[in-house]
Here is the input.
Amino acid sequence: MPPRPPSWILRARNRQLMIEVAISPVHAGDADLKVCLTNSGPHECLNVIFVIRLPAGVMRLRGQERIGPIWLPPGKTVCEQLRVRAERPGRYRLTSPNFSYQDHNGKPHREASFTAEIIVEPAPAPAPEPRISTELQTRELALGEWTVLRCRLSNVGGSDAEKLELALDGQVTVDERSRRFALDRLAAGATADASFYVRAQEAGPHVPLYFDLTYSGPRGRHPDRTLATVSVSGNPTPAPGFSPPTGELIKVLYLAANPVDPADPGRRGLRVEDEFRAIQQAVSQGRKRDDIRLESRWAVQSLDITQALSSVEPHVVHFAGHGDAKEESIVVGDEYGYIHTIPVDGLVQAFQAVGQSVRCVVVNACSTERLAQALAATGLSVIGMRQPVGDHSAVRFSIGFYQALADGRSVETAFGSGVAQLMMTPLGDDARAPFLLSGGQAARG
Here is the structure.
C-alpha cells in the first residue's frame, strides 16, 4: 500500500463542545475522513446531533453522515469515520446543516454556522512496480529434436518481483517436467535465466513461441505475454544413443569430489561414498555384472580428470559432487581442498582430447544443464540435473540407472529406471531434475 499523507486536524470550539475534523484524502483517490465530537465542558450534554455535509469535489463512498442523537458526558469523545474521494488537491469547507444538543439544564443549543476546513494534498507518488521483460536466448532449433530452449527474465522496473511463473506455448512440444518455470523473487535490476526442454513441431525461419508470465508486485498480480520467433531447420539427423555392447567389457569411471566451501566450511558433505557403494551393489546383482568394471577416483581435482580419462579409457564417466548453479558445471577441489568450478569449455576440451572411448556421461550434480548440453553437442549421451536435487535422491537415481545398465539395458532405458526410482520414493520435485541428452536430443523420464 502507498504511504498515507499526514492528517490535518481543525478544532472548532462551540461553548461546551470541541469538534475535531481530521482528513487525509488524496487526489483522485480514496481516503478516510474522521469526525470526532468531544465534550470539553464540565457538564454532560444530551441529544447531541451532528450531520456532516461534504463540499462539492469530495464524495462520500461509505460511512454515516450523521452522529447522534447521543449522550456525551464530560471528557467523552465520539467519532464517525467516512471513506471519501477527493477530485483534486485544494482547500474545501465542511459544513453541518444540523449541529445541536441540550445542556445539563435541558436548554437546547444549535450551531447554525459551523464550518471546518479540509485540506487535500496532492497524491503521493505511487509505489514503484516491477516490470519483467522476457527475451528468447535460443535462436535456432532442429525439427523433431529434443533440445534446451533458453530465455532470460529481466526486471527493468523499480521494485522486486515475487512469485514469478513462466510457461511456454507455441509450435513446440515441451517436456512435461520442464513445462513451467517458477522463481520466488527477482530483484529490481536483476536477471534470471529459464530453460525448457522442447521439440520443434514445424520448420521455418520464424516459428512463433509464446511466453506467458505472471508475477506479483506491491499492487498485485501482473500478467504478461511475450511473442518470440525461432528459426527451425528441417530434415533432422538423429544422433544415436549409447547401448552397452553385448559380451564386451564396459568400463565405468566414478569421479567423486566433495571439497570444502570456504564461505560455508561447516556444510555437511555429500554422500559420495554411499553412492558408490550403492552402485557397486546394483551392478553386482545384474545379469551382466561380469561385463561391467567399476573404477573410482576420490577427492578429484582438475588434473585428475584427464589422467583418469587417459589411463582408464572408460565407456561411462560418472561425476558425483556439487554443481555450480551459476556456471552450470561441476565443482571439484583445488590444491588446498577448496571448491573450484571447472569451466564448461575446459571440460568439453578434456573429453575431446583424451576421452575418445567415452560414450555416456552421468553428471549427478545439481544444476548442470549447460555442461550436459555442451557435452551432448560432441555426440555423447549425457545425463544431467536441471535443478538442485537432494543427496538421497541422487543416490536413488544412481541405483535405478545401474540396475538397468547391469542387466544389459540401453542408456535411455537405464535413465528411465533411475527416474522411476525417484518417482517411487518422491522427495519434493526431485523427480523433475534428471534429463537425458543424446547428441542434443532429450529423452523423457
